[in-house]
Design a protein that fits this description.
Distance between the termini: 26 Å
Radius of gyration: 16 Å
Number of helices: 2
Strand content: 35-45%
Number of domains: 2
Shape: elongated
CATH class of the largest domain: Alpha Beta
Helix content: 10-25%
Length: 136
């Protein structure tokens, strides 16, 4: 069994995933548009290039995503995407990149459980926690 995060975007899914590729060294492994899908005939023309389904591999995990249909987007709340790194330097680098254009909720700092830990909401409204854990 496997659990994956599925994120919905307000028409900017492709931009968000390309941002994560650059910011976190992730890799887009699938990106399907409405155009060319079985739903194409029922899709408004201005929505054909929006993302129907995408997959982003980040480390040993995957994030799946799509653009929410018009009028159905809701700002994410009640969760954070947690990203753990191997080194404090990597945590700092990714945190800085993801926070570009977003809002830092808790600046990157040492904590009782992590060499580095910080919280932010990126420019696409997705909440993140970035950390480099201490050995437990």
């Amino acid at each position: 069994m496997q659990t994956n995060i599925y994120l919905h975007y307000n028409g900017n899914c492709e931009d968000a995933l390309k941002f994560y590729e650059k910011a976190a060294g992730a890799k887009i492994t699938a990106m399907m548009r409405h155009e060319g899908s079985p739903a194409e005939a029922q899709t408004p023309k201005e929505w054909l290039q929006k993302i129907l389904h995408a997959r982003l591999e980040i480390g040993n995990a995957a994030i799946m995503a799509s653009d929410a249909p018009p009028g159905r987007y809701a700002k994410p709340q009640g969760f954070s995407v947690s990203l753990s790194t191997d080194t404090p330097e990597e945590a700092e680098k990714i945190f800085k990149a993801l926070s570009e254009g977003g809002a830092v909720g808790m600046p990157m700092a040492e904590s009782f459980f992590a060499h580095k830990f910080g919280m932010l909401t990126d420019k696409f409204d997705v909440p993140w926690m970035v950390l480099c854990q201490k050995a437990m």
